[in-house]
Amino acid sequence: MSRMTIPIGPQHPALKEPVAFLLTVEGERIVESALRIGYVHRGIERIFQRRTYVQSVHLAERVCGICSHVHSTAYCQGVEALLGLEVPPRGLYVRTLLCELERVHSHLLWLGVLASNLGFETIFMYTWRDREIVLDIMEELSGGRVAHAVNVIGGVRVDVAPDQVRSILAQLDELGRQVEAFVGVIEHERTFQARTRGVGYLSADEIRRYCVVGPVARASGVDVDLRRDAPYAVYDRLDFRVVVAHEGDVWARTMVRILETVESLSLCRQLLVGLPDGPLVSRAPRRVPSGEVVSRCEAPRGELLYYVRSDGSDRPARVKVRTPTLTTLITLPKQLQDVNTADAFTVLSGVDLCIACADR
Amino acid sequence: MKLDALLEALQEAFPFKELNPRPVPVGETFITLPPDCLHRAVGLLVERFDLRHLSAITGEDVGDEIVLLYHFWDNQGLTLRTALRRAEARIATVTDLIPGAALYEREVSEMLGVTFEGHPGPQVLLLPDDWDDEPPSYPLRQRQEEDS
Predict the structure, then answer these.
(1) For residue B41, which of B74, B76, B12, B3 has the smallest C-alpha distance?
(2) 3-class state of residue A317 by DSSP
(3) Which of A217, A231, A270, A285 sits at a 20 to 30 Å CA gap from A191?
(4) Residue B144 has pLDDT above 80, yes or no
(5) Is B121 on the interface with A (CB under 8 A)?
(6) Which CATH superfamily is domain A42-354 in?
(7) How far is B38 from chain A, CA to nearest CA, in Å?
(8) What gap in Å lies between CA A139 and CA A145, rounded to an integer?
(9) Which residues span the domain enclosing B113?
């Protein structure tokens, strides 16, 4: 059968972000694939070297338009470690609360994108409708739906008032009921299963060889989660389970993410109920003593790494950002091999790409 | 990760080298190695200690040297630090041991002009295909005009 090469992107109606895929097909079967990123490369690591530590908090938040808060969390906790600065407990609780709200937002957004690519418009509409609840909570807390500017070096800049705690808890209950309904759909809906079972398979060994992180790794039975394995912020004081599945396909990734959303909602409740009294922020000096630090966080897509080196001035000498998407991209040619062309977008959505994160 | 056993094995493999293990926040240990030992050291981590998760490779131009940091993770962090001469920035690829390092190496290569010998596909990762200026310019290398 003759081969044909189909270019998809960097500008394409089905893509949310600029990335280019080159699929070589024989009939309906994909025999080869290549991808190209870099279309939204902004040179952020270079820009860090020209900003002060304080200005860099805002820069870190602008790496990603979905998980912005976890970027500033990883950066701030790195700089705080260099300063030897202790963040007050209330500050850490609010910081962690935003991290978990963001995970709920990211996973629901992703489920909507996957459903839309599968042609399952109802779930797309419902998840994006219900995502508004969590966006409203974040907007009420910080003033921003996506870029929250909550983190500062030494703590956070926003507080949660007692009446806000009550209203957020009620909103979380409402969202929790909706998420439970999605769990049922993913578990039992036969069309959904037919489109996702066995698609985009990765074995646990492949996950380890390619250094893949986050929900994609956990869906293939690799039990890693930095919130439990290397607790930062206040995760060591919270009760949650790490969701792991063993099927290694898009269905398992969906299951892991939606059950993680349930866990995250429970974490949000624990954080709101257990919110300690006290200050929100410790005062940080402008200059950071010489040294280097490796700061890791569990972003919605997995391990996020920030390396910060200070030369003793008020500007970082080097900031390195390694986002989780960079680890999953490398597995795509493997996942697309021998897949039906109609399933290409199921595979691509299944790994939850964030191109802006990968390009930086 | 059994850090003590690992350090011991590395010291045994490279008896005349100063490894300088030092703690770095948060829960990370840095070890220094000469560039010609790095590939063997990574092989040892992968094969004897099953330390296969390479989180990232950081590259930095510090003047006369290009510093490379290989950040590993297995319940705690381990970073292998090596420094290449700026004029002759070459090192063996680790993609044969850790296939997941392919994109990290491509990025360090285009940003800092480091050649990873034996890399299976050393194209640019983030920069445009026609970036190849004459003379080559690497975005993360220090520039004279900025220092003044």
Answers:
(1) B12
(2) strand
(3) A217
(4) no
(5) no
(6) Cytochrome-c3 Hydrogenase, chain B (1.10.645.10)
(7) 19
(8) 5
(9) 3-140
Listed residue (A278, A281, A236, A284) closest to A81, CA to CA: A284
Q: Is residue B122 part of a domain?
A: yes
CATH number at residue B93: 3.30.460.80
Nearest to A93 by CA among A167, A166, A158: A158
CB contact under 8 A, A307 and B58: yes
- Contact (CB, 8 A) for A97 and A233: no
Please tell me what DSSP assigns to residue A281: B
- Asked if the Cβ–Cβ distance from B102 to A330 is below 8 Å, we say yes
Average pLDDT, chain A: 91
pLDDT at B147: 46
pLDDT value at position B16?
72
Helices A53-61 & A68-83 angle (0-180, nearest 10): 150
Measure in Å the smallest separation between the Cα of A347 and chain B Cα atoms.
Answer: 19
pLDDT of residue B19: 79
Can you tell me the distance from the alpha carbon of A155 to that of A284, in angstroms, rounded to the nearest whole number? Answer: 9
Residue of A232, A293, A330 with shortest CB distance to B24: A293
Side-chain half-sphere exposure of A9, counting CA atoms within 13 A:
21
At residue B94, the pLDDT reads 93
Q: Are strands B115-117 and B90-92 parallel, antiparallel or unpaired?
A: parallel
Count how many domains chain B has.
1
C-beta of residue A43 within 8 angstroms of C-beta of residue A22: no
Q: Judge whether B114 lies within some domain.
A: yes
Token pair of A328 as six digits:
């999953």
Residue B51 within a domain: yes
Q: Are A308 and B42 in contact (CB under 8 A)?
A: no
Determine how β-strand B65-73 pairs with β-strand B77-85: antiparallel
- Determine the distance from the C-alpha atom of residue A16 to the mean position of all C-alpha atoms in its chain, rounded to a whole number: 16
B121 domain residue, yes or no: yes
Buried b (16+ CB within 10 A) or exposed e, A115-153: bbbbebeebbebbbebbebbbebbeebbeeebbbbbbbb
Among the listed residues A246, A241, A207, A245, the one whose alpha carbon sits nearest the alpha carbon of residue A225: A241
